[in-house]
Hints:
This protein is of the alpha+beta class. It contains five helices and seven strands. It has one domain (about 5-185). It has helices at about 5-20, 45, 70-80, 95-100, 125-135; strands at about 80-85, 105-110, 115-120, 140-145, 150, 160-165, 170-175.
Amino acid sequence: MKISRSLWVCAIVLVLAGCSAHAEPVGAGPSSSATAGGEAATPAASAAPSPTAPSGEDAVATTCENVLTPAAGADIDAAGYVLHTELPADPDGIMAPMIDQGGLSCYWASGGDVVAWLGLVVMDDAAWSAQRAELVSDGYTASDDPITGTLQGAQSGDNYPTLVNSDGITYYVSQPSLLSSVAALQ
C-alpha cells in the first residue's frame, strides 16, 4: 500500500506537534470520530486492555485517545485523519505480537491509507532485553533520536519501524517522528 503524500503530511504535523508545549495525558472518553464508511470508530478501551505504567499510584491508563500529546492529537484530527483501534489486515510482524500480549493498537487513516501506526505493551526489563537482542540481530540499529534508547528498523516503503522501551512500556511506531508526540515520552 503506497502512503507517501499523506504519510509525509502526518509526519510533519507530528514533528511540529512534538515541538509545542508538553502537557500531561488526560483521560478521554471514546472517540466519536467516524470512519471513512460512516461507522463510528471503535473505542480504544474495547480493543485491548489499557496498559499502565508499572510504577506510580497516579499512572493514567493509556488509550488511543490520550497516548499522544493533546497538541498532536488535535493536529491529527484537524488534518482529517481518523483513529482506528483494530489491527488492519496484514499488521506489522512486530506490532501484532505486542497486541496479542494485551497491548494497545492505534492507527490513523485517511481514505483507507494508514498514515501512522502506534502500538504499546507493558514489558519488563528481561522481556525488553530479549526483544531488543532479537531486533538488533534482525538489523535494527540503536539510536538516541528522537528518544534515548530508540531502535530503528530498515525503511520499507513509507514505513520506518521504530521501538523504544521507557518505564516498562515498549512503544512501536511506524515513523520515528511519532515518538516525539507520545505523551508519556515527553
